[in-house]
Every structure is written in structure tokens, then in C-alpha cells.
Amino acid sequence: MHIDGGDTAWVLGSAALVLFMTPGLALFYGGMVRSKNVLSIMIQNLACIAVVSVVWAVAAYSLAFGPDAGGGFIGTLHLAGLAHPEVAVPGFDINIPPLAFAAFQMMFAVITAALLTGTGADRMHFNGFLAFAAIWTLVVYAPIAHWVFSPNGWLAQRGVLDFAGGNVVEVDSGASALALALVLGVRRGWPRDAMAPHSLPLTVLGAGILWFGWFGFNAGSALGSNALASQALIGTQLAACTGVIGWLLVERWQTGHATTLGAASGAVCGLVAITPACGFVNSMAAMVIGLVGGVVGVVAVRLKFRFGYDDSLDVVGVHGACGLAGTLLVGIFATKAVNGSITHEGLVTGAGGYLLGVQALALLVTIAWAFTGTWVIAQLVQRTIGLRVTEEVEVQGLDTAIHAESAYDFASMRAGQAGF
Predict the structure, then answer these.
(1) CATH code reported for the domain at 5-185+195-406
(2) Residue 254 and residue 201 in contact, taking contact as beta carbons nearer than 8 Å
């Protein structure tokens, strides 16, 4: 196995960028919740790094990328405990150490589980969430990663294209978020009471960190410092920009105002939509995909009010819907001119509808597995150690009731104002 120093450095640096996305997510989510719950959402994200990383090293990595156990459904435990680091990752022809690949993919598992903290914001118990995240990584995330990301997976064998996680991260988290929201139930007072973001500056800072980290997320998935990584990076940037434009255009048309929260959300929508496509489409297609993502996102986040599910911070609308749109658009815009390794091209090349059909199949099975698995796990945790906090804790606020902390010392602020 030949190890290329430049490729290894790029993948290790990209792993660090993807890890940085989870603290960014903590800020992004933290600004959007009420002030009494900001620390609870942040500690859930930070603790998720610890729990999912350990689960990944112990077993989930092997289940996702180990030798296939048969049928392309799940890997064996041959690589459990990160054993056999000298052996090439099954099915991959890459020039980086296996542990570099394992570390990079670890950060994907972390951020995917962390996304679900947004669904349960304001009402999900810390202990219950950590138990849920550990089981969910093994039961839901690892199999889907094997199907799509592992060359031995049954969907990969059929030619599905997912460069950086449209199915494995985005649609997976969106479908899981819907199931989790249904098990948790609505927040006290929702949708009657206003639950506006308490700090949009925090949210904007978090969005900026997510945008920055996404370059590692997408371009790092080339697994080398090469032309494909360059195309993925520029496509990511352009899609984020058109995502902002798409969201703000619809928002301005609907309400007469372009908002800061809308700009931040639109950027994330564009980034989500381009994630499955960035290594298969050219720059102009990336702009179209990002624009579609921004429009789909602003429409999708409003559906929760129509259908009555309380997805607190819009994981279903932003990640699920935009990931679905981006995955389907791969079946339209994918071209060998960008990535010569693909077997099937998209509709715009005149190659026919096979790829679009495979992309749709992957979406259906991902949604079904993620939703069903998450619903069962959430019910199990709720009926044992508890997943939703009590009404008293919800009213008081999770920061003080569960963590004995407060993000803002309002008492001292009031005392200082009185003295002044």
C-alpha cells in the first residue's frame, strides 16, 4: 500500500475541519433556542463528540467499512477496536493510511448524530440523548454508511452516487429527526407561544464555522489533494452562495423582509444540497443545486406547522428536504467530465434515467431505515431511562434544572443596572 504524504495531510486536515463543524453547530443551534436552554444544546453537541467517537472506534467503523458480512448490508467486526491498521480499507484504492480514513469518517458520524440535538431542543434530556446517540450510531448510521459509502455496500454496487453524505448524513438525519420529533412530542406551548432565537449573532457565527468546515466535509471526501477536491471545494462555495440567494428571494417575496436568520439558514441549505453532488457536477450545476436547496429549504421548514410535528430547529426541513433534493439532482447533473470513475451519468448528458432511479431507490430505503430505526430506539430510551424532560424542567429551563448552570447572569446584570 503506497502512502502519499500530501493526500494524507489533506485528509487529516479535512478531518479536523469536519470536527470543528460540531462546535459550530453548537453555536448555530445555541443562538436559535431560548436563553434558558442554550447551554443544554451546546453540551449535547460537545458530549456527542465524545460518545460517538468512542462508539465509532469500538464497533461502528468496522460495521460501516469492515469486510462485508454478506449481501452488502453490514460489515463484520474484523476492524472493531480499530484493529488491523496496516490493512487497506476493503474496497478502496486510496493512498492514505487506514487510520486517517477512519478518523475522517469518524467526524461524519459525530456531526450526523449531533444534528439530531436540534430536533429535541428545549425538551430532550441529556442522559437520554447520549444513550440514544450511542445506539443510533450503531443501528441506524453504520448500516446506511455501509450501503452507500462502502464500495461493497448493496447500494454502492448498484451505482448510487453520494460524494460526501447526501444520503448517509443529510437524508439520514432528516428522516431520523422526524421520528425523534414524533416520539418526543411538541414543546409546551408550541406553536401558540413565540419561541424566537435568543441570539442571532451566535447563530451567524455558527453558520460561518459550518460553512468553513464544510470545505473539509466535501472537498476532503475526494480523499486526496487533487483536481477532484478542487472541484468539490469551488462547487461547495458556489452552492452555499446561491443557497443564500434562493432563501432570501423566497423570504422577501413571502414576507417583504430578508432576515439574518434566513441568510444563515439559506447558506446551510445550499451546503446540504451540494453535499451528495459536489464531486460529480460542474460549477454551473453546483450553482443551480444550491439555489434549489435554498428555495426547497425555506418552503420545507414551514411544513411542520401544517403537519403538526415539532422539529425545533428544522432538521427535517433543512437537512432532510435539501439532502433529498441534492441527491435527486445528482441523477440529473452528474457527468464523467468531472469524475471519470462514475459508471452512470445524469440526464443532462443524455445517458438516460438509470442513475436518477438508483438515487431515488437510495432515498426510499434510507428514509425507511432511518425513520423506523430511530422511532424504535427513541421509544426504547423513553421507556427506560427517559428521553423527554418533565414539564417542570421544561418550564424552568434545562440549563439550570439539569446542568446547574446559566449562560447569562441576569441577576448580576439587573443588580448592576440598579446600582448605575
Answers:
(1) 1.10.3430.10
(2) no
- Amino acid at the residue 240: A
Peptide bond into 191 cis (omega under 30): yes
Smallest Cα–Cα separation from 116: which of 164, 190, 179, 70?
179
Q: Which set of grid coordinates corresponds to residue 209?
A: 464555522
Longest dimension (CA), the chain: 74
Asked if pLDDT for residue 410 goes beyond 70, the answer is: no
**pLDDT single digits (tens) 183-193:** 999 999 999 99
Instruction: Indicate the pLDDT class of residue 379, thresholds 50, 70 and 90.
Output: very high
For 240, other C-beta atoms within 10 Å of its C-beta total 27
User: DSSP string covering 50-80, please?
Assistant: HHHHHHIIIIIHHHHHSSB-STTS-B-STTG
CB crowding 111-132: b at 16 or more within 10 Å, else e: bbbbbbbbbbbbbbbeebbbbb
The SS3 assignment for 210 reads helix
Q: How many CB atoms lie within 10 A of CB 138?
A: 18
Give per-residue pLDDT as tens, 308-328. Answer: 999 999 999 999 999 999 999
What are the extents of the domains in the chain? 5-185+195-406
Kindly give the residue spans of alpha helices, DSSP state H, lying in 33-149: 38-55, 61-65, 98-115, 126-136, 142-148
Q: Extract the C-alpha cell encoding 294.
A: 435554498
What is the pTM (predicted TM-score) of this model?
0.96
| Residue 358: φ, ψ to 5° | -65, -40
Radius of gyration of the chain (CA): 21
